[in-house]
């Protein structure tokens, strides 16, 4: 499987629209690619890596936005990409690509309509910074949408957040250490800190994601609790009461031993970014030798697993 066609640790959230907020109104090109759902994240990553400042998932297709000067190079690259992608994910339409020119638009403000506050479980509320929320007993996590995975709307992010909320209460929060592998926007690390973790290590191999995460951590006032690092989990020492890995199935399998070794006895491992039909392969890799499965959650075509390490 060719690396350029699948996201690594960085992935792009559903319904995401990204932009340079200081840009002036000017025309855009929209490229729409209708594809099977399992291919959407790989397509979104391809578009982002080729200069699109934003992608939107709607009606079974991925829509990306480009400046007109980017079109020539993109037209050359999208054909070979699509041919290779068909080999991995069959089921494309005969003519999956559509190009259109968008009228001039004040993109710096119109893109915000794609982001609305999201309630997660009983205790969390995820919101962009420009939205004022009513007084609530929920913990508000403010996420500035940017070029990194995790604004709370994707089924994998939601599944991880719900499991974090469920497993936090029994811990001695003054001592709880947590690890977020592939932190993206930092949303899961922030949730851990907000819900009481004494310290969180957040890892990512993408410098763009780390910058976005750093900004979000600062906005949420949890910089003292969270340490960001561009490092591999296999290079990390110590054990943690909670380990979160919202990646993809292939990466989770590659890192299985390293992830398992980072979980303290009796601690929890939350795994997501897994297509539902891949979940059994992940379970077999961890259970029953070292972990027991506590719960399996399905959201659309995605699975999130909650595992507990044997004491």
Could you outline the blueprint of secondary structure elements for this entry?
Elements: E1 26-34, H1 40-49, E2 55-58, E3 61-66, H2 71-88, E4 97-105, H3 107-110, E5 118-120, E6 124-127, E7 139-142, H4 155-167, E8 177-181, H5 187-194, E9 199-203, H6 207-219, E10 226-229, E11 240-246, H7 249-254, H8 256-262, E12 263-275, H9 279-286, E13 291-299, E14 302-309
Parallel strand pairs: 6-7, 8-9, 8-11, 9-10, 11-12
Antiparallel strand pairs: 1-3, 1-4, 2-3, 5-6, 12-14, 13-14
Helix pairs in contact: 4-5
Helix share bin: 25-40%
- Quickly give the structural class: alpha/beta
- The level 1 CATH classification of the largest domain is Alpha Beta
Radius of gyration: 19 Å
Strand order of the largest sheet: 10-9-8-11-12-14-13
| CATH topology type of the largest domain | Rossmann fold
| CA distance, first residue to last residue | 37 Å
Helix segment tally = 9
Average residue-wise pLDDT: 82
Percentage beta strand:
25-35%
Shape: globular
Major β-sheet annotation: 7 strands, mixed
Named at the architecture level, the CATH assignment of the largest domain is: 3-Layer(aba) Sandwich
Number of domains: 2
The CATH homologous superfamily of the largest domain is called: Vaccinia Virus protein VP39
In the predicted model, the low-confidence regions spanning at least 5 consecutive residues are 1-24
Q: What is the N-to-C succession of helices and strands?
A: EHEEHEHEEEHEHEHEEHHEHEE
Question: What's the β-strand tally?
Answer: 14
